[in-house]
Amino acid sequence: MTTRKFYANEGREVIADASSLVEVVLGDASARRGPAKHYKPGDAHVSVESQGNFSRNPKDPSKGLIACRDRYSAELLNSDGDRIAIIKASFVAAFSVVREEDPDEAELEAFANSTGRLVIRPYAREFIQQLSTRMGVPSFVLEVLSLDPPRSGRAVDGEIRRGAR
Q1: Which pLDDT tens digit goes with each residue over 36-70?
Q2: Of the residues 34, 71, 72, 134, which has the maximum number of CB atoms within 10 A of its CB?
Q3: Residue (of 109, 127, 104, 117) closest to 147 by Cα position
Q4: How far apart are CA 95 and CA 15, in angstroms?
């Protein structure tokens, strides 16, 4: 017997229960060194923008595809506030979905900002860390993603991490 979760009072199946990961790919990437004269790490700025899209399979209307795209921008500054490097990258995670009804915008946004981010984050974390190391600048490691509210001193997407490694 399969257990399915439904939204309260709506009788709608949760997307995550009707989906399975197909693949994760790097969409595009760029990296630039900044004008910093020394590499003693200072603050780090990280931002992530998530987006989800849904399309139906024309050959089998009971199946669909959700594409979650996360765009990362990671900027590493030195202790003087000068830019050491900026790395930008976008990743796409594709999920197959077997579900009769199309998800609405709120469902897609919630899925992209939760399941999509949780799947993509390890790929982005590894890519940004490896690229910063290959550039010869201090290794830039993204925090492990948590959907729980941040604890004191923990960096969150879109915020500043003080005294980056």
Answers
A1: 988 888 888 999 998 999 998 888 888 899 999 99
A2: 72
A3: 117
A4: 10
